[in-house]
Amino acid sequence: MAVVKADGYGHGAGPVARASLDAGATALGVATVGEASELRQLGFECPIIILGPLTGEEIGAAIDADAEITIWTLPFLKNIIGVAHSSDARIRCHIKVDTGMRRLGLYPRKLVEFLDMVEPAPEIVLAGVMTHFATADEEDDDFFYFQLHAFEDVTQMVLTTGLTPVFHAANSAATLRYRESHFGMVRCGIAIYGLSPFQGDAAADGLRPALSLTSYLADIKEIAEGDSVGYGGTWTAPRRTHVGIVPIGYGDGFNRRLSNLGSVLVGGEKYPVIGRVSMDQITVDLGPSPKADAGSEAVLIGRQGDAIITTEEMATALGTINYEVTCNLSSRVERRYTG
Fold first, then answer.
1. Of 7, 94, 138, 322, most Cβ neighbours within 10 A?
2. Does 336 map to a domain?
3. Does the annotation count 5 as an active-site position?
């Protein structure tokens, strides 16, 4: 399963879905019924699994999108059966089991009761049984194996009923690190974008980032020693220097916390972001003798010559994870696709 929720982690759900299916994926994962509907409108005919919760009012929309639904409570299951019966529909469902994440999912001890309602219901096709790992991205973590063994017990419990759904548990981290967690399907999210689920060097796991974020120098301005830059004057020039103005800001998803902290590549060299990140612009210290001209490319994420800025590097500076960096890229950032 290629997970393309949150507009493909900010990369663009449609193009990512097409590339993933062309590369061998057989199903798509989303978080909401709206995301499933959008993919159907784009012409995708493969299985689309809604991994997140639905309200009762959204069940009909999920049926209209021919989406597969994740279930874990008896009241919601009864609601689905009722809506499906009145719509003369059969809904493919995946039971989510909570083996330790303590978010969505039913406890394993309640599974038999749940299966007793699913099995005879003609409106329900049990397509899958799943869980989600809380610590697969952590080194040498015993809790991962606690969850894995709990889910192995779940699979045996289901198989004794004669049901044969696909079992799936592995996120990107588990897919790369724990082959025993693969079962019948893996759910790859961050890794299909070439980003590290371990927040380290993506290349160490054979991953190559799909995304670069670029802008340009809209202007270069010489300033004197002692001049301040940007809102609040939070940066003051320690010497005569040149400031590059780059038209990108927090309105595009370049986080305001990168004020006086982030970096930009220009002419194959890394330069510091100075002053506060504005909604639409940032400023960069290009030094006393700039090696670039107005109009030159500015790289916020990606490679330029031998220099590179990774999402993992940016995430570390922000005290967050690479997922958030790309998901926060706003819709006004133009997406261009190559390859």
1. 322
2. no
3. yes
